[in-house]
Amino acid sequence: MNKTKEYDLTVIVPAYNEEENVERLEKTLGDFLPTSKLKTCVLFVDDGSKDRTLPLVKEVCQRNKDFFYLALKQNGGLSAAMKAGIDATFSPYVGYIDADLQTTPEDFNLLIPHLADNELVMGIRASRKDSLFKKLQSKIANGFRRFMTKDGVADTGCPLKIIHTDYAKRIPFFTGMHRFLPALIQLQHGRVYQVPVRHFPREAGVSKYHLFNRLVQPFGDCFAFRWMKARYINYTPGDNNL
After folding, report:
1. Which CATH code is given to the segment(s) 3-230?
2. CA–CA separation, 24 vs 21, rounded Å?
3. Most buried by CB count within 10 Å: which residue of 35, 79, 92, 232?
4. 127 CB-near residues (< 8 Å, 6+ apart)
5. Distance CA 3, CA 172 (A)
6. 122 pairs with which residues across the strands?
């Protein structure tokens, strides 16, 4: 039996070459679990790391009964890691947080109360602690994405989200999918709610994002989304005798 079935919420933590953050992740997530408003477990998804991230994550999981891991054989990017984590999740809700801890798992408790009325609840990074250039790139990319998707979301890049797992499993996945989670939930007629959350500077490790994959690539992904949206199949099952 998949162990995530025993929990209400599975928090996915994609990690690629984040060995310097594993110790902080263990402590921060370990401190959060007893305070969570839902029975929660953690699922690390190692995205083919080339440093000591995976061995360290395995040690963390041996020490913590509510921590689990899934290792990808090769690096596939954030969308691939998220899809792998969602596919492996069988709790009613699935959450997501970045391994750099620029958001805090404590703020999941700000999102949880809104799950009864919404299929996706997500953070909006208040007082972002990024460089001016990084914030400018995000502002441009977010503005163009909103124009193309009409999702009405202020900060789709905020790495703090909770989704109803049955909706998450129906998301059509593709490279760059993680930028369109709200719009992809809305394609299923799901409701999206945004909550201001805290944001912190990166303390360790190196950002995996740069000008190309933060600004240039998302423009192309928006056109891919528009193509997919026009062909998206949405259906509601009726009776059956399966």
Report:
1. 3.90.550.10
2. 5
3. 79
4. 198, 199
5. 25
6. 161, 194
